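The data layer described in this paper is built around a simple, fixed record for each protein. Because each token names a local backbone shape, the row as a whole describes the fold. We quote a single record here, exactly as it is kept in our systems:

***
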Amino acid sequence: MVLRKNFAVLALVLAAFPAAAQDFSAQLPDILGDEEAPYLPDFSYAGYDYGVSPLPKIDTVIDVADFGAVPDDGKDDSEALQSALAAAHAAQGPVRVQLGAGRYQLTEILWIERSGIVLAGMGSGDGGTELYMPRPLSQMDDGGALDELREYLVRYDKRERQANANLDVLFSEWSWSGGFIWTRVPGGRHATYLEEYDRPIETVAAIQSGSRGERVVTVPGASSLAVGDVLQIHWHNRAGENGPLIAAIYGTDRSEFPVGDRHWLLPDRPLVRQATRIEAIAGDQVTIADPLLHDINTELPAYFAAWEHLSEVGIQDMALVFPPSPFFGHHNEAGFNGIYFTGVHNGWISNLRIDNADSGVLTDDLAAVTIANVVNEGDHMAHYGVHIGNVHNVLVTGNEVFNPTIHTFSVNTQSTRSVYHRSTGWEQPTLDQHAGANHQNLYDAMTVHVRPEPASGDPPATYELFKAGGAGYWLPGHGRFNTIWNLEVLVEGNAAPGETVVVEEPSGGPEARVVGLHGNRPLQLDYTPTPYVELDQVRPIAAPSLYEWQLRQRTGE
């Protein structure tokens, strides 16, 4: 449902400032206020506790010094840090595992496997806490955590082939998985690769009906549900290439783009999953915490499924530092990965500096998570900065990416209604829409610093800002309603003042929304398929952040 509340308040504001009223009201995007405007998801539910609560503070402390972790002594602290986390797992209730100021050396994985554990330092800058990882994950024992992925890579001969670089090797299992700080449900299986390892899905209740964008669903026999339950809603595509779920994700006109066969070859796996919380039950009317991604009816059946997850898990206030290392090529990473955040509902990562990582933060199987104020830096070419894949309602805000990256801001496979917000890419960044049924995601109030390919003759300078990844069997780049809002493109070279720069998205998806694309050069958007475009070359000053605007409408603030 498009939010249209509080326009009376806006009118009063404009009346109070008549000199500014004409310019201000002219920049209120039609898509927010026009009853005939196309559908726009409500992105305000992204983040911890669906965007309405601050990150919690945990007062019960386990001090790593009590387990022999001494910063700045040049000795390895892995055993002491693991012992402190073991004590946290044995404790009752929420606990904060606290590191002191200075450098700790880590050569083992730190596992967080229960709810209510926060790993915290003293800050990410001078006088703060630094975790230094001198060796990559490829030299660590993960206890078999990625064995299924390793088997998958071998069975399907997933290789990185670059003839000009004499490179022909299996993909690294660390390319998009694993981290030195790793959250997971004990015994869980958050990333699925091989069908023989699929586990039975526990159906909790069938859903009879519900409407996209609404929060009330009809559940006959709702007695199997309870207020506070955190479950997933599953939609399966059992109707093949032209089934109604494919139409819901990609629309009915797919003449301009292919849809990969992974969308229908695994009908027993849900193609769309929405993790949510039961807020209220009145007879067979059930209110969930966030709006439905898709309709539910006889043509589009769905059900509540059990979801194993952790909650109230946080990582905050520290620097994760890796040594300078060569770049061995895309998908050939050694495993200098900071955090692998998996299997969490209501969690957070905040106030981190990550230096010289292969990937700073990788995610999987999350919902209602905030990732705030992460700085990625260093000279090493990274695969990802802060990555969001296979997640729902994740908010990434204040992400500053100074280092070179292959995929800077990535909404990856099966990510839904997640948000990159007020973040900046400094070194040839990309807004990567990575295929795999990702849809209804938002790039909001972003800034990118770019050096386009210079013009040669008549063609203008070009920059492939939306340089996407993803396998062909998961194409197109994204589903319906992915949104780019107030995107500032700052050209730092290769185009003179007044010279047009083409911003390219050659492999996008249907019904994208692009509102407020602007920069320090005239910009021409080349986006395939053609998106809904509004306020071209204009900063949307009446709603500079769609996420914030929608949150204000919802909360009444």
The radius of gyration is 23 Å. Helices lie at 7-16, 18-26, 30-33, 78-90, 147-155, 244-250, 546-555. The chain has seven helices and 35 strands.
